[in-house]
Design goal:
Length: about 270
């Protein structure tokens, strides 16, 4: 068949159109969007995580990034469950409310957000910051329940990285009557844990949420943290939800006031 046949012309034009479309997409900085699979590896162990990419993402602007830490019920190795509760669910209900790249690491079974799982979370965050056009001054940290504890844990160790933190129904002090797993937020075994954390986070904007009737994590943990931060003039907000049990995250992530506050925060502001 000659190259000038009708079929040949259609093929050439089709290939040219496809090439032009791809070039245009790359020029506009378009990438795959939605919830995307990713992995990081530490000492031979692979940790699955997901990132959420807004449908409006382009490289024409630098995007804020949120690191979200899930609770105990979403632990696993599937790399998916952590997007079903909390911030992932809020995004699926109203994606326009969260114009940001969101990193969803997953904690392995029988672990919490300390030690190696916390390292994997930070690796996933750093990898995302390098992979996409991101704003290093608008990196936010939040988590619920066990992830609330992880939020305090990572904020205490890396306050210089984040522009704001939002621990939801989390804890700081280790009390063996209800939590006995390793590595408390403050390494030292001390009754002054709230005060020590507060001094480390004195310049970091923090919004704490907790249900007043939480049967899983004592509300006193968030009250103590809020009081210690307030006492030294730190930029802290505290919302205690009357009559609410453990699930204070739906109210937090569904709050327009919270979202507005979060995206207003900038590192070093």
């Amino acid at each position: 068949m000659s190259s000038t046949s009708p079929c040949g012309i259609v093929f050439v034009l089709g290939a040219a159109f496809l090439l032009c479309s791809l070039q245009h997409s790359f020029a506009q900085g378009r990438v795959e969007t939605g919830f995307l699979n990713r992995t990081v590896e530490i000492a031979g162990t692979v940790y699955k995580y997901q990132i959420y990419m807004p449908s409006t993402y382009t490289q024409a602007q630098a995007w804020p990034v949120i690191l979200f830490l899930h609770g105990a019920g979403e632990r696993g190795k599937d790399g998916l469950l952590q997007t079903q509760t909390g911030l992932g669910a809020a995004i699926r209900q109203n994606a326009d409310r969260y114009p940001a790249i969101v990193v969803f690491p997953q904690c392995p079974p029988d672990s919490i957000w300390v030690g190696e799982p916390s390292q994997a979370a930070m690796m996933a965050l750093q990898k995302t910051l390098k992979e996409f056009k991101t704003d290093a001054d608008r990196v936010y940290l939040t988590g619920l329940s066990m992830g609330g504890n992880g939020t305090w844990y990572l904020a205490y160790r890396h306050p210089q990285i984040f522009a704001a933190a939002a621990p939801i129904c989390g804890w700081i002090q280790r009390d063996t009557s209800w939590i006995s797993m390793f590595d408390p937020v403050v390494p030292e075994n001390t009754d002054a844990a709230f005060e020590i954390v507060a001094k480390k986070l004195v310049r970091l904007p923090v919004w704490i949420f907790h249900g007043e009737a939480d049967p899983a994590v004592p509300v006193g943990q968030s009250r103590g943290a809020a009081a210690a931060l307030t006492a030294i003039g730190a930029p802290v907000k505290y919302t205690e939800l009357p009559g609410t049990g453990h699930n204070s995250w739906d109210a937090a992530y569904g709050s327009e006031k919270f979202v507005t506050w979060l995206f207003e925060q900038r590192r070093g502001k």
